[in-house]
Design brief:
binds fe (ii) ion, 3 domains, DHBP synthase, alpha/beta, 15 helices
Length: 536
């Protein structure tokens, strides 16, 4: 059974497509990577769909189902994908506001709309490897809801509670982020980073009923009044202690709400497994706190937890419903995008008339030596990652023990100085570095670092002595594992600083062309692309 999963709403960001064949994932990528526009706001997942189909050598007519990660009646999918003609064409790159509310009928009977939050939880629970688990999906909003909580057991999803749009925890976090002057979409990571510098003041957030049943509830009207009292920071203004405290408060509130929810679920089900999804699940500080709680023993977090993941979840949900079987894989890595071989890479190098490069007989050793010499490296290998984190295939890498490297990369990426970087660490050494270690392949969990290991990872340790680890193993990324192993041979450190290969306000790179352009637009020192090493 061939199922195309898409996030393709007229009001969604992070539109994406994936292809599931007989319960196995074949390809999965975000539209933004192909059209080179961050988050692809309200842009149909046409290029991502094209990539998925071409990767499998299929066309639209070969598909059995088209699973959509939204279930609104006003969906504008047919405005950009012409199913009747079995071809993909982008008619409206950006839907105009007057078009958003135009209802229409799906004329292709293969299209199945899946409730947005059911799609989110399907992307975590069914792909977690857990037989049963508590499940939470939280985002800003999807259709009329901003989340749901429940319990998954085998193929069944038992939904206990739906959180409506007005009570949205994701929306509250976004509103505070906007008031802090962080402009643009998906800037919540900045608020999370800043929160470690402030002190929470819970009394101010008196619009939350912590004793509401079954879970804490935001009073929409009271919240509106409170937010109106806060003076919005201009993005160029200095960040004061007041701003830091506000960030700390919203972070604290989110963690407290998360803890109450997992306690409620544990009391309902007795399960200490937890599956998380939805944009809020990208909050690695909250995730770390939940994992530490006595109500959670095992956790699975969908790494493409923003609306990208609802494409995958929709496809998986349709597979479950149509076959009465679980999908045939665990989503334990994110490498589902396009890849390029050495011939394609050399062609791109030739096209741009680059002279200072050579074919390396051991790209891992040579690159590790450069990183050990404190050079900043672009690393382009294998299939592109899906989801907001670069996890070792489209990454900028550096020596994690060199504290000044932070400023150097911040200036390359035009990032704020308070935002932490993250380390990729060989899985076999991770427990030596952090307290309460738990496998963390997606850089989506924050851990307390052991004091004696701070010096090794100095550039990646946050002000509160936490690190958001990515653990790397041979099975899921052999090339990256080899590179870090070579770096360990030279320095004794089994880790690298890893940040996504993109410049400010740009999506993560996809192709050799993107890699070369970004390399020459920045002050990176070397680019290791396939087996070629390019020197600036
Ligand atoms: Fe969502």
């Amino acid at each position: 059974m061939k199922i195309l999963g898409i996030t393709h709403s007229c009001y969604s960001w992070n539109n994406a497509a994936c292809l599931l064949i007989d319960g196995k994932l074949v390809a999965f990528a975000e539209e933004e990577r192909f059209i080179r526009k961050k988050h692809a706001p309200r842009i149909g997942a046409c290029q991502a769909t094209k990539y998925c189909l071409e990767y499998a050598g299929l066309s639209m007519k070969d598909l059995d189902y088209i699973a959509v990660g939204f279930d609104d009646k006003y969906h504008a999918i047919n405005q950009s994908i012409d199913f009747n003609n079995h071809e993909i064409k982008q008619k409206t790159p950006r839907l105009k506001s007057f078009e958003w509310n135009q209802p229409f009928d799906f004329y292709d009977p293969r299209v199945i709309n899946v409730n947005h939050h059911i799609a989110h939880i399907s992307s975590s629970f069914y792909l977690s490897g857990f037989k049963e688990s508590n499940i939470i999906s939280l985002d800003k909003a999807g259709e009329s809801e901003s989340g749901l909580i429940g319990y998954g057991n085998g193929l069944n999803l038992d939904i206990f509670h739906r959180i409506n749009h007005q009570e949205s925890w994701g929306c509250l976090y976004e509103e505070i982020t906007n008031l802090l002057g962080f402009k643009g979409h998906s800037q919540e990571g900045k608020t999370m980073g800043l929160s470690s510098y402030g002190k929470p003041c819970l009394e101010k957030f008196n619009f939350i009923d912590w004793n509401a049943k079954p879970i804490p509830k935001i009073d929409y009207e009271k919240k509106k009044k409170f937010l109106a009292t806060i003076k919005k920071r201009n993005c160029f203004d200095k960040i004061t202690q007041k701003h830091k405290d506000l960030a700390a408060t919203v972070q604290f509130v989110l963690e407290k709400a998360g803890l109450k929810i997992v306690k409620y679920l544990y009391n309902q089900t007795g399960s200490r497994n937890l599956c998380l999804s939805g944009g809020v699940a990208l909050n690695c500080a909250m995730n770390g706190i939940l994992l530490k709680s006595k109500y959670v023993h095992d956790i699975y977090i969908q790494p493409a937890s923003n609306d990208t993941g609802s494409a995958l979840g929709a496809a998986v949900y349709v597979h479950v419903k149509k076959t009465n079987k679980s999908p045939d894989f665990i989503f334990d890595h994110v490498y589902w995008g396009p890849e390029f071989n050495n011939q394609e890479i050399e062609k791109a190098i030739g096209k741009y008339k680059i002279n200072k490069y050579h074919f390396s007989n051991n790209i891992f050793k040579e690159t590790a030596e450069k990183i050990a010499q404190n050079k900043i490296i672009g690393w382009f290998q294998g299939r592109m990652e899906v989801g907001p984190r670069a996890l070792g295939n489209r990454s900028i890498l550096a020596n994690p023990s060199l504290v000044k490297i932070k400023d150097m990369i911040n200036s390359i990426k035009k990032r704020e100085s308070w935002r932490p970087f993250a380390p990729s660490i060989l899985e076999e050494y991770a427990s030596k570095y952090v307290k309460d270690y738990y496998k963390s392949p997606f850089m989506i969990l924050a851990f307390d670092i052991k004091p004696n290991k701070i010096k090794d990872l100095l550039a990646t340790v946050h002000v509160d002595n936490t690190v958001r680890l990515q653990t790397v193993n041979k099975k899921n990324n052999l090339k990256y594992w080899k590179l870090i192993s070579e770096f360990k041979k030279i320095t004794g450190i089994p880790a690298l600083l890893n940040t996504s290969y993109n410049l400010a306000d740009e999506p993560i790179i996809c192709s050799p062309k993107d890699a070369l352009k970004t390399f020459y637009d920045s002050s990176m020192d070397y680019l290791a692309i396939g087996d070629y090493l390019i020197e600036k």
